[in-house]
Give the backbone structure.
Amino acid sequence: DTAVSQTPKYLVTQMGNDKSIKCEQNLGHDTMYWYKQDSKKFLKIMFSYNNKELIINETVPNRFSPKSPDKAHLNLHINSLELGDSAVYFCASSQAKRPQETQYFGPGTRLLVL
Amino acid sequence: GQNIDQPTEMTATEGAIVQINCTYQTSGFNGLFWYQQHAGEAPTFLSYNVLDGLEEKGRFSSFLSRSKGYSYLLLKELQMKDSASYLCAVRDWNSGNTPLVFGKGTRLSVIA
């Protein structure tokens, strides 16, 4: 009964490839996020979706394209992977009408681009 | 701009008390969160402050002063398992769907 799940947990790939990371939450939340955590452990927002609609898109290369087929899923597709994309990507979710409620994080996807 | 500062590393002894400070400068403020992150794992929620004062939860307490843009996380009776990174995060808009702005985290090492 995992609250926020991500697949795959590890992803090793060559530069130039295209890959996808999937995220699902079973908490009934209406907002989902993608964060990137770099080698210095700095956690930074990439995208935020509310009820399947994009509400925040930080300065992220357009090689990154999120897709939300429904409120419970937010996938991240990355085109033409670069060495600098190597990081841990965390999905998270929260409920918009409860600002005091924390965001729940998935276990992370460790991406290594060779 | 937004800026959240916390010390990079701290070391403390098992059984002791440690205080991890966080200062923030954000365009708005609607709550400050503390998260714990063990190596190789996801951040997990520890505490939330939106009003000034101290919130206590077992061995962990968190304090907030909005006028000073300052918070601290207090860990008592330290245990070895408390060795982790502690992330301070601010929600800068009055909406539950606003992503959090994180500090760079404080890596705490608990030694015997």
